[in-house]
Write a structure and sequence with these properties.
single chain; 4-stranded mixed beta sheet; 11 helices; binds ligand LW2Y6JES
Length: 276
């Protein structure tokens, strides 16, 4: 039994930590966990906290539920009730499209993020699970994009990375036809990693997280950035190269450079082997 501790209090999300894991739960079940700007701001705060926490090796992202009508949702995308002409209207009255910042944070943080999807993952909510490293689906999960039906589209990761996952033809079908797909169909097209009964969703996610936590965190970190580098252009290479720099800083050879500077002497790099 995981002893989840409240990590911080928010209005639209729940944020817990336990045993090397952080869990972020979108908590607006009355609107199928649709997000408003505040929801996204809170998620960015929680993800940024998890990223900085050296005890946290995996983040679980999920949706609260079931709602009072018994239905589950991971996330139904942007809250259409606060959608204005220039984006989603925040409490300050300013329109925002801040979910893109959240997508980048999930993608670039060094720890793997596992989406636990029960019920609807629709629209911008579908893109959220797409940008996670892994997705475990409950047997009641339903996936789909609605953009062209509701006057929206995500031409970033929501289109290009989706196509990397399921292939160009399938990604175009998903976006052009706006159909809904059940958990088995999602598994068959490579959109999710596993399907489990809904009551086992969290325990399965915890088991996957704990298996990852048994592995080398630096190896996992480098692998995440290596997978990203394949798709993310110069930003992806920056991430991967940042890890190379991190590892280089840990060597005696790199430390000789810093030490020589501090001691106001010429560095002796000739002592280090030129490995084949
Ligand atoms: C998810 C459904 C298929 C579920 O259907 P059903 O079970 O029949 O429930 P409903 O009765 O429809 O819904 C229950 C209750 O929830 C409210 N609700 C559901 N979804 C939303 C929503 N997205 N916004 C606001 N409210 C929602 C619904 O109104 C009901 O409440 P009542 O009080 O009873 O009215 C179905 O609900 C559904 O299809 N929902 C809409 C899905 C959708 O179209 N989402 C938006 C897609 S666009 C998007 O997500 C923006 C993406 C985005 O943010 C973005 C992308 C790229 C660049 C920038 C941006 C950006 O930041 O905008």
């Amino acid at each position: 039994m995981t002893d989840w501790q409240i990590a911080a209090e928010f209005e639209d999300i729940l944020y817990h930590k336990a045993d090397g894991m952080a869990k972020i739960t979108i908590n607006r079940p009355q609107v199928r966990n649709a997000f408003r700007p505040k929801t996204i701001t809170e998620m960015i705060t929680a993800f940024a906290d998890a990223r900085e926490d050296v005890e946290i090796g995996v983040v679980l992202l999920t949706g609260a539920g079931p709602a009072t009508d018994g239905k589950y949702a991971f996330c139904a995308g942007g809250d259409q009730k606060v959608r204005g002409d220039g984006g989603y209207i925040s409490e300050s009255g300013v329109p925002r499209l801040n979910v893109l910042d959240l997508q980048r944070l999930i993608r670039t943080m060094p720890q793997p993020v596992i989406a636990l999807v029960a019920g609807y993952a629709i629209g911008g909510g579908h893109v959220l699970h797409v940008v996670c490293d892994l997705t475990i689906a409950a047997d009641n999960a339903i996936f789909g994009q609605t953009g062209p039906m509701v006057g929206s589209f995500d031409g970033g990761f929501g289109a290009s990375y989706l196509a990397r996952l399921v292939g160009q033809k399938k990604a175009r079908e998903i976006w052009y036809l706006c159909r809904q797909y059940d958990a088995q169909e999602a598994l068959d097209m490579g959109l999710v990693n596993k399907v489990v009964p809904v009551e086992q969703l969290e325990s399965e996610g915890i088991q996957w997280a704990q298996e990852i936590l048994d592995k080398s965190p630096l190896a996992i970190r480098c692998l995440k950035s290596a997978f990203n580098a394949d798709c993310d252009g110069q930003a992806g290479i920056q991430e991967l190269a940042g890890n190379a720099t991190l590892l280089f800083y840990m060597t005696e050879e790199a430390q000789e450079g810093k030490q020589a500077f501090l001691e106001k002497r010429k560095p002796n790099f000739r002592q280090y082997p030129k490995l084949p």
